Amino acid sequence: MKINADLLNTTKIFSLIALVCIGTLGFSQNHKVQKSRVIVTSDGEIDDECSMVRFLLYANEMDIEGIITSSSQYHWHGHKWAGDDWLDPYLAAYEEVYPNLIKHDTGYPTPEYLKSVNFLGNVETEGEMELVTPGSLHIVKVLLDETDHSPIWIQAWGGTNTIARALKTIEEEHPEKMEYVANKIRFFFIWEQDATYQEYIRPHWGKYNILTIISDQFEALAYRWKTIQPAEMLPYFEAKWMNENILHDHGALCSLYKAHGTSDKGFEEGDFRSEGDSPAFIHNIQTGLRNMESPDWGGWAGRYVKVRENTWLDPVHVEGYEYPEGRWYGSTGWGRNATREGATVNNNSAYKEYFKPTWQWSDALQNDFAARADWCVKDYADANHPPVVRVKGAVNQKVKAGQKVKLNASKSKDPDGDILNFSWWQYGEVDSYEGSVSFGEKSSAKTFLQVPADALPGQTIHVICEIKDNGEPQLARYQRLVFEIE
Ligand SMILES: [Ca+2]
Ligand SMILES: [Ca+2]
Ligand SMILES: [Ca+2]
Fold first, then answer.
1. Contact present, 463 and 426 (Cβ < 8 Å)
2. I need a labelling partner for 16 at 20 to 30 A (CA). Which of 292, 341, 350, 469 fits?
3. Whether the Cβ atoms of residue 328 and residue 192 lie closer than 8 Å to each other
4. pLDDT tens digits, one per residue of 453-486
5. Looking at the CA of 470, which ligand is closest?
6. Are the C-beta atoms of 486 and 458 separated by less than 8 Å?
7. Rounded to whole angstroms, how far apart are CA atoms 151 and 21?
C-alpha cells in the first residue's frame, strides 16, 4: 500500500507541475521543474574521481545537500585510501571554472556552498558504523530538517555505512521521527559495497518501504565498458573522442579527469577508464524521460525492476532467474558475474539486454558531457545547450483502442536556435502493451500515434518524443508520454 501511495505522490507532484505548464502555455515542458535534492556518499576510488568531475558539471541540475566521503569494501583508512581530503582538488577546480559555468546556467551552486556541505563520514574500516562522524551528522541534520519535506536522493558510490550511521543516530535519538525521515528518503546504491544495508538498514528501516535502487548495470559505464558497450557506442569512450572532447583544453576540472594512461594494459592513453558511480546521480538529471517517477521506466541511468518490497534491481533476462535474498554486489550481481573472465554468456542476448537500458543512451550521455566540458571554457554563443522539448497536452493521457492520437511537439525550441530533429518512438520494453505501435511520420514535429485496436483496457503505451539539435556536440532531450487504454 505504502509503495503505491509513494509513487502516487510523486506522480501527483509531476502532474501538478505539468498542469501548471499546460495552464499557462498550452504545452507541457520538461524544463525548469523542481530540482532533486541529493546527498552523495563516495569512497574516493579512482572511478569516483572521474564520476565527481561529471557530477560537478551537473551541479546546476540538482540541489546538492551533501558530499560525504565514506569507506567501502574496497577502500578505507589505510587501505587503498585516496585521502580524507581527496575532494579538495575537485572543489578547487570547480571554483576555477565556476565563473565560466554560470555563463551557461546561473543555477550552478557557488564553490563556497559546495565546500560547506563536504564532510568526512565513516571511513575507518569496511562497514564501520559505530562512530558518529561529521558526515553522518550532516546527513542527520538534512533528514531532520522539517522546513523542506521534499524527497532526498541518498546515493552510495561506496559503502552504505555512513548512511547507516546517520539512520542509527536518528533511530536512537529521534525514534518518533523515523517515519517522517523514511518518507523523504530515496536510495540509489551502486552495489551494496558493505554489509550495513543488509545488517542494519533493512532490519531497522525496512518496514517503511523506502524506494531503493541497487544497480549492477552501472558496469556499462565502468572498467569493463569495452566488453559491454556495443560497437556503435565504443567511439564515445575511446581516446580520440575523450582527448578532443574532455581531457584537453577544457579547463581545470576536466584536466583532473583520470582517463587511462599509456601503461594501462589494453588501453590507449586517453581511453575512458570508469565512472561506475555516475548512474547514482545521472538518475537525478531531468532529461524529460521521467525516470524518477518509477525505476522501471528507464532513463540515462538504466532501468530497474521491483524484486521485493520497494527494492529495485537490474532486470535479468533469464527464465526462472532468482535474485539473491541478501546483498546485490560484486559477488552476486548477474551482470558482473556474466562479465567475469570465463563466463560463457558474454555474447548471448540476455547479456546484451541486461546492459542495454544503460548503453542505449551512451551517445546522448557522452555528448552532453562534452557540451558541459565546453561550458567550462567557452562563452555561451560558442557552446551548445540542449533543446527544450514541449509536447502539447498532458503527459499522461487516457486513450481508446483504435484511436488516432495527435502528437505535437512544434513548440519545442533550442536556446541556440539550432535546427531540431524529431523522433517519436515507443519504449516497448517498458510499457505493458505487448506489441509494437505505429506512428504517422516519425520524424515530424507533428504526427500521430495509432493506438492498436487490440490494446486492452489498463494497458499502457510509453511514447518518447526525442529531440536532437544540430549543434556541436549534438544534444538530446525528451518528453515521455504515457497513454493508458480506457
Ligand atoms: Ca565508488
Ligand atoms: Ca543547442
Ligand atoms: Ca510493451
1. yes
2. 469
3. yes
4. 999 999 999 999 999 999 999 999 999 999 999 9
5. 2
6. no
7. 22
Q: Are 161 and 167 in contact (CB under 8 A)?
A: no
Characterize 403-428 residue by residue with b for buried, 16 or more Cβ atoms within 10 angstroms of its Cβ, and e for exposed: bebebbbebbbbebebebebebebbe
Residue 70: helix, strand or coil by DSSP? coil
Helix (H, G, I), strand (E, B), or coil: what is residue 354? helix
pLDDT tens string 346-366 = 558 888 999 999 999 999 999
Q: 25 CA to middle of ligand 2, Å? A: 22
CA of residue 433 to ligand 3 center, whole Å: 4
Examine the fold and report which residue of 297, 320, 336 is the final residue of a domain before the chain moves on: 297
pTM confidence score:
0.93
Per-residue pLDDT at 30 exceeds 50: no
DSSP string, 381-409: GGS----B-EEES-SEEEE-TT-EEEEE-
Tell me the CA–centroid distance for residue 125 and ligand 1, in Å: 15
d(CA 288, CA 441): 21
Whichever domain contains 448, its CATH number is: 2.60.40.10
pLDDT of residue 344: 66
Number of domains the chain is built from: 2
- Residue 154 domain boundaries: 34-297
For strands 185-190 and 211-215, give the pairing.
Answer: parallel
From ligand 3's centre to the CA of 462, what distance in Å? 8
Dihedral sign for Cα atoms in the order 95, 301, 72, 168: positive
Q: 162 CA to middle of ligand 3, Å? A: 39
